[in-house]
Amino acid sequence: MPRVPLRHGEGNKEHLTSFGGLAALSLDALSSVAYGPEAIVLVLVAAGTSALRLTVPITLAIAGLLVVLVVSYCQVISVHPDGGGAYAVGKKDLGPTVSLLAAASLVVDYVLTVAVSLAAGAASLASAFPSLGHHILAMCLIGLVLITAVNLWGIAESARVLMLPMVAFLAAIFGVIIVGLVRAHPAIVVGSAQPVHVSEALGTIVILKAFAAGCSALTGIEAIANGVPTFRRPRASRAQHTELMLGALLGAMLIGLAVLIAREHVAPRGGVTVLAQLTAGSFGTGWAYYATNIAVTVVLALAANTSFGGLPVLMSLLSTDDRLPHLFGLRAERPVYRYGVVALAVLAAVLLLATGAATHRLIPLYAIGVFIGFTISQSGLVRHWHGRRSRRWRLRAALNGTGAVLTATAAVVFLASKFTSGAWVVVLTVPALMLLFSRIQSYYRAVGLELDLGRHPNRPLPAESLVIVPVGGISKLTEHALHAALSLGDDVVAVSVHPEAAQSAAFRAEWDRWNPGVRLDTLNSPHRSLVHPIVDYVRRAQQDDRQVAVLIPEVQPRRWRYRILQNQRGLLLATVLRASTDAVICTIPYRLTTR
Amino acid sequence: MPRVPLRHGEGNKEHLTSFGGLAALSLDALSSVAYGPEAIVLVLVAAGTSALRLTVPITLAIAGLLVVLVVSYCQVISVHPDGGGAYAVGKKDLGPTVSLLAAASLVVDYVLTVAVSLAAGAASLASAFPSLGHHILAMCLIGLVLITAVNLWGIAESARVLMLPMVAFLAAIFGVIIVGLVRAHPAIVVGSAQPVHVSEALGTIVILKAFAAGCSALTGIEAIANGVPTFRRPRASRAQHTELMLGALLGAMLIGLAVLIAREHVAPRGGVTVLAQLTAGSFGTGWAYYATNIAVTVVLALAANTSFGGLPVLMSLLSTDDRLPHLFGLRAERPVYRYGVVALAVLAAVLLLATGAATHRLIPLYAIGVFIGFTISQSGLVRHWHGRRSRRWRLRAALNGTGAVLTATAAVVFLASKFTSGAWVVVLTVPALMLLFSRIQSYYRAVGLELDLGRHPNRPLPAESLVIVPVGGISKLTEHALHAALSLGDDVVAVSVHPEAAQSAAFRAEWDRWNPGVRLDTLNSPHRSLVHPIVDYVRRAQQDDRQVAVLIPEVQPRRWRYRILQNQRGLLLATVLRASTDAVICTIPYRLTTR
């Protein structure tokens, strides 16, 4: 069984430079400029096109929050150099319930990252190729299948491979901004103008909603703090360097795009994203337009892909804390890893189908979870500074406290304003996941108590052993099984089941002619049941103090498709014996060479 | 695990009287009067309503064939008192290829019996309740789900329970015939008249097609010969008695209904079956009409149910002959029985969906297989008489030879006339099944040769044994596993896997403090893989001549839903070890009492 390729942070640790870290850990954050500014425009336009002039001030406020978050995460990095993340911070500083909340919202967010990135990527591609406009959902599902296949197959992403699309993406976006600012007028206005239905008055509520919606551009900036162990030493300072780079790049892009939006009076237009409109305004609709849209699509698809690396790591952390089945601790085992990949893909597909792959319907759900995580990280830091009372702790606590209040406000605004249009899903899912994790944890705790986990049980002593070998005929397989049984047991008995006494007698005569040196017990079963007579026999054998084992030989055909022809009876017998007796169940393979 | 209830012929053998045998084994045959006469009418009307006058002569010809078949099956019963059936007859007298053909057509027929009976039953119910007319397919699927559920749950049908519906059915049909013959004119004409499209000239082809279609009324008369062992002694004569009763009843019903059809000028009418038209003609549309239609529906549903009893028996016979996985020999085991029930239900559902539950589209497919079976049985008898050359063998052989030619003709006519409208499915399926059975048989034969099945292998000798116990911690579970390992092995070693050397050292220190008297080997796995280090360890241990066993403790939670939380790692380990080493894999259950 081949090994699952390494993900970030495994095996080859300490390999990321600051710039490599940006490619490996920040594509999700950087690519959110494809939907964040658009989310602001969509909210504001509901209060009339004149409201769009608020885009720049609102973006500046978001950039302010970005500064707070970046500084805050730099502190998280120095406080938790082993990889922070809301889950670890919450567990350490804020207690089990908060860490459960963090875990649940992270799980929801991994699913939503996949869905949002695919939906935004499809919208970007459809802006370049309008004939794809009616197939957004289909494109998302095809993209999802491709990403899932790549992950099932197991391609290790490397920072070097991700570098090229990231550089292309940054060059394209900054190209749009710089060329756009230099031009007096937009080169081309693309997309069909839509009638504006003014449904709300321009007031605090709309501004708050636009602010909260635009905050979706901040999703993903926590990833660097989660991934500190993947940096080259000195890890913390390299990671902080990357976090600052990310903040600077993201802030500059957001503000630049907002200024362009205001200058070019960009409004939602049918079938063309806001970013694509700005691109056309700067570059026209020649090759540069196509190249930019494709770069955006590729980076969004890669952002979707990061969840497939991240969720297994989180599930493994949760299983270490007894909050998910221990199985998920073995994330390097391919079958376990595949469970996770397929589960994530199915959930993302459900979300895409439920929302019709509309980015603006997914973003509120997405942002709620992300902002819960931000709030938890910042609150944890406040608690941390308060507990340590180191130098300048009040200033630090005030900074993180402000961040916590702002991000909590954004989460509440999302939740309240979008409750009926989908946010209730998050409100149901997050507590349900928390309950699940906590039920699993209390189950494992009870089992641990029952098993005296961590104490020293009695010293195990050997007992006499009896090995029972069910036989159906005399062959090399029988010899193979009896050899193993004689090696393992102090006493060995072969058992055969026959419909009638005559057949039993005939088989006994044949057995005696062979004379294998093992005694035979024959059982009669007029109902042609194999399992029950043997189960009863094993139960009777267990009545003394001997250790009873049942040894079942298994023919292993060379080809998989012959599996159904072999061992099914043994499998059935083993299953029933396991459920209804305390015997040791042993299976011994006999490898066929036939065909 | 509760036992599957007994089917006919198991356990309580020799319990059927002649009349009981009619109820237990002939519902399928008797109920075919619900679709056989209708099939004739449907073919003839294509040559104009005047062609309908041929209904009586064609039915008389079919009754003649019925006589030949009944006499022939009486002979099958005396020649094969252990239960004949086309499969057994073919295997004994006509060689392996013919018996494969018989087996394949029987499998196809079991599926089609379910589909045809349900479709005809739904049509009968819709005749009584016209509002159900647009929901024939849905009614069939609901009926299928109910029958499947009953069979999964496992209700044993008894001849006594079946007696009542059979008597009601016979009373109703003979009531329709007698009252109808006494009346001068039909009481009421139901159903809406349909325009007749004359698409064929009345000639030999149409008459042959009508004959072949009407022969579908003969399906099921082989069941008594298959079930001889279920009769009370003297079995053969009781079974022959039942066969004769069936022939007389079926013949009388077919001729009586044909005469009524001719007298009342019955033609296909929208939404009402031919039998329902005759019922209304005799009884009017009062309670007797509803009662008759319901009795017909119930008997058809019970006829569908008989396949669920019959297919497992056939599969068990095939598995005894190495033509199906040996697993199916264990038909008394509930999981095996359930596979068969679910597979049959799924295939019948596919057929119903593909044909829209239209009886007239299913009947040709059905009849082909049945008539292949008839032909094989009769040809086998010809060969039998020829081989024995007993008294009057020429007469007997001539009788069966005639039957074989007639039934073969019917099969060929069905096949040719319905090839493009569905019979090609049978033409593909039957050889595909034959190929499958024969591939399975040659696989088992090759394996038997490799295993020296039936010869005496060497006498097995014991070897030294080493039992490896993977441990993840120290608990009562560890003690339990080590106790069993010490009982079974000459040498025992515990193995633990840790991500880093420090953890290994800590666990070793803990182990030494416990001092269980078993040595510990620690393995390091920086990739968090549990399976590979242990597989490598086992492979190394197998390099000497010792018998190596790996003992994996399994926590057995009290509730099923906790299964996912336990043992998944052990299961994964066992699966990989089984596939990639020759070690004996032992599992030992540890039953939790927690919750």
TrEMBL record, chains A, B:
Primary location group: membrane
Keyword presence, Methyltransferase: no
Pfam families on file: AA_permease_2
Keyword Transmembrane: yes
Compartmental location: Membrane
Topology of this chain in the membrane: Multi-pass membrane protein
Protein name (Swiss-Prot/TrEMBL): APC family permease
